[in-house]
Amino acid sequence: MEQLKLGGETIKKSREGYYLKALIERSLPRKWCLYACSVLIAVSAWSGIAAPKTEALSASELLTKLYDLDGSVLVAAHKGDWRNHPENSLSGIQSAIDMGVEMVEIDIRKTADGKLVLMHDDNVDRTTDGTGNVSSLTLSQIKALKLREGQGGSGAALTNETVPTLEEAMNLAKGKVLVNLDKCWDIRNDVWSVLVSTGTTSQGVFKSTASNATVDAWLDSKSPRPLYQAVITDSDNNLSELDALIAGAQPDLYELVFVTESSSVISSTTVNKITNAGRRVFVNTLWASLNAGHTDDMSVDDPDSGWGWVVNRGASFIQTDRPSQLVAYLNSREPLEAGWASKDIGTVGSIGSAGSRNGQFTLTASGFDIWTAADQFRYAYQPVSGDIVITARVKSQDHTSEWAKAGIMIRESLNADSKFADVVVTPSHGINFQRRPSTGLNLSNTTGYTDSLSGGTGQYVRLVRSGNTFTGFASTDGSSWTQIGSSVTISMSSSVYVGLAVTAHDNSKLGSATFDQVTVAAANAYSFTTVALRQGVSGYTGTTDAHVLEYYADRNTGGNGELETASYSGADTDEKHALIRFTLPSSIPSNAIITSAQLRVRLTTTRNGTVKKAIAVKEATGSWAEGAGTGIDGQTVSGVTWNTKPGYGASTIDQATINSARNAWYTFNVTDLVQSWVNGTSTNYGFVLLENTVNSSPGTKDFASANNNVTENRPSLVVTYRLP
Q1: Which residues contact 197 (CB under 8 A, 6 or more apart)?
Q2: In the 8-state DSSP scheme, what is residue 510?
Q3: Residue 638 confidence (pLDDT) above 90
Q4: Nearest CA among 339, 328, 344 for reference residue 501
Q5: One GO term of the cellular component aspect (predicted)?
Q6: Residues 513, 493: contact at Cβ < 8 Å?
Q7: Domain 341-522 in CATH 3.40.50.720
Q8: Quick check: 8 pLDDT over 70?
Q9: pLDDT at position 696
Q10: d(Cα 231, Cα 290) in Å, to the nearest integer?
């Protein structure tokens, strides 16, 4: 049975409800929608042990995502995936769709015989093997040209692709992705005719800096009313039109273009007006004059200062020239799908992470290798029993080493020297089927424990367990499979851990890999139930939390909306610890087997510095009361204080590196501790978040508490369990 429990209440999954808001918005007159459309929360359950695949959304689902200000950040691929395909090409559009972006931007020009084609420049010189203005060439003349690779130029190689028509592009995008229609406001009626003829009126998004009067009149002249993106810029000095647009034309999206960080265009006043109108803020990170220097290029080296900065300022839709890297970054900011857990295996040089979004998983890891006698890597996993098949596509992989590895694994335990079998992709050494048939076996300088095929990122891998027989496969398309070497025998326990594994093969570096099309199929399928506990959701009121401050040792902060963690004075005099406890509902039976428990917290503020901090989770071992203190440093009232704080467990349950990107989610694997609470081997006194060691660098990390005024920001405990 597929179900989700929120606050102990079981909610059945309803796909029909997922479309409702979008359908209302498209069918009612636009000016009614801001008042008549209620906010809908879509919830989905994890069924069995299979993760959702990355699949193109329907037009209705795309509109639901566009209008749902749920804290997510959507991605627009500028001119398609032009780094790997010709710009404004059909292959580039398809590649961007395959990445899981929500929008593709294209540029539209009109030929001498009145046909609409995709071309950024007003001439064909840069991107094709021809010359001349688009407006002076017929469609047949343009179709005779070949597109150049990437952004073109005389040095770029020619491809076999031709210049697409708008009709071809919209037919390809139909039902899969929103399309940002650039350079076509002056020919918008011609473009609209193509959208009508291709049945894509609910996907094409017009854009301009035009006045509200002009926009509103044109939108009202069409049926159905077109999607529209208002562009507010420093250079056009049209911020004064914003109030009129919100009240009048009511655009579906607002693009903000600003030269400086202090620009009124990106001020909190502007952003709040847009979000209060129920619309997303769209920001380009293409080059510096569009975003005050917070560009894609900056984001390659420091994503928190680039993409993270624009998200912190309110952007919920980003247009990028690096869509695959932006998607991976956004994945890493989100919690894993319910039912999955993650941890570093072995002694790694830097703390790794794992997150998932839209059916994609991104793991970041250091680690020396998955090899020798003890492994070092990041693992996202599920506990399973019996025969198993895991399949995934390795979409991308950082080249931290020629032997960096990203792939799928079945592992007997979470110890570094465990028996395992895996199928991993490497940057320079193909796809490898590796195994350690006995605990602690040193695989170095040995033979017979690996087989390989040619291949790399973009390919599918599969690992099959049947009894004690393990077989590895690879595929270019996910349909036709090639076995890697021979099947091998490993005497492994029936209960194992199956999942995704990444190692940088260099313990001084962090590298990332992104997976999609992930499926896990077990012969002995279980029925799983997920319980998501968050204060104020579905009547759940069982969260208590507070932070305690060594400097103000008698103050209590239980009523504050934030949970502070800090250790930045360079001495043991300015510690701040956060305590969180979730009362487990009685609906979880005492004999339940906890397959995953994730503590999720959202970073809302950083103060006194932006240095990254390693925050650990430990077990609280004594009772404490929340109290009612408020304010940044609390006040002297009853409730837990530094002087009365409970004891903590000696061992670290999990830890994460916390950066300075506000609104990022951080997930801690607390499966074993929650299991002990459920079966009664320990008492639930909650968790404590703290820095494990004093850090002389300044910087306080503030997480949303259960008292935060935004319900969606509050911490949650997501528990997935099965019965024996």
Answers
A1: 167
A2: -
A3: no
A4: 344
A5: plasma membrane
A6: no
A7: no
A8: no
A9: 67
A10: 11
Q: Is the dihedral of CA 112, 113, 116, 118 positive or negative?
A: negative
Taking the C-alpha atoms of residue 226 and residue 219, their distance in angstroms, rounded to an integer, is 6
Structure token digits, residue 221: 């002249």
Locate 19 and state its tokens. Answer: 């479309």
Phi, psi of 340, rounded to the nearest 5 degrees: -105, 150
In angstroms, rounded to a whole number, what is the distance separating the alpha carbons of residues 88 and 79? 5
The torsion region of residue 33 among left (phi > 0), alpha (psi -120 to 50) and beta comes to alpha
Query: What span, in angstroms and rounded, lies between the C-alpha atoms of 339 and 498?
Result: 12
Q: Taking a C-beta distance cutoff of 8 angstroms, is the pair 564, 576 a contact?
A: yes
Classify burial at 36, counting beta carbons within 10 Å of its beta carbon; exposed 0-12, middle 13-18, buried 19 or more: exposed
Angle between the N-to-C axes of helices 166-173 and 188-198, in degrees from 0 to 180, rounded to the nearest 10: 40
More confident residue, 53 or 664: 664
pTM given for the model: 0.79
Is 341-522 the same fold as 59-109+166-332?
no
Residue 221 has pLDDT above 90, yes or no: yes
Nearest by Cα to 704 from 534, 563, 532 = 563
Indicate the burial class of 449 (C-beta count within 10 angstroms; 0-12, 13-18, 19 or more): middle
E strand or H helix at 269: helix 268-276
For the chain, the 3-state helix, strand and coil shares in percent, each to the nearest 5, are 20, 35, 50
Residue labelled with tokens 């570094």: 416
d(CA 212, CA 335): 40
- Could you tell me what percent of the chain has a pLDDT over 70? 90
**CATH class for domain 59-109+166-332?**
alpha beta
C-beta separation of 301 from 258 below 8 A: no
| Beta bridge partner(s), residue 253 | 229, 280
**What's the token pair of residue 429?**
């050494």
Strand pairing report for 431-436 and 450-453: antiparallel
Is 435 within 8 Å of 449 (Cβ atoms)?
yes
Residue bearing the bigger pLDDT, 105 or 445 = 105
> What is the greatest pairwise CA distance in the chain?
81
Buried (b) or exposed (e) across 367-387, using 16+ Cβ within 10 A? bbbbbbebbbbbbbbbbbeee
Rounded to whole angstroms, the Cα distance separating 422 from 370 reads: 9
**224 prior amide bond cis, ω within 30:** yes
93/456 Cα distance (integer angstroms): 22
The pLDDT tens digits for 700-721 are: 889 999 999 999 999 999 999 9
What is each CA distance from 55 to 245, 358, 475, 516, 665, in whole angstroms? 34, 8, 19, 9, 24
Q: What is the dihedral of CA 218, 220, 222, 223, to 10 degrees?
A: 160
Radius of gyration of the chain (CA): 27
* pLDDT bracket for residue 185 (50, 70, 90): very high
Written as one letter, the residue type at 245 is L
List the one residue out of 139, 122, 246, 137 whose CA is nearest residue 183: 122
Domain ranges of the chain: 59-109+166-332, 341-522, 528-722
CA distances from 1 to 7, 47, 84, 526 (A): 19, 8, 42, 10
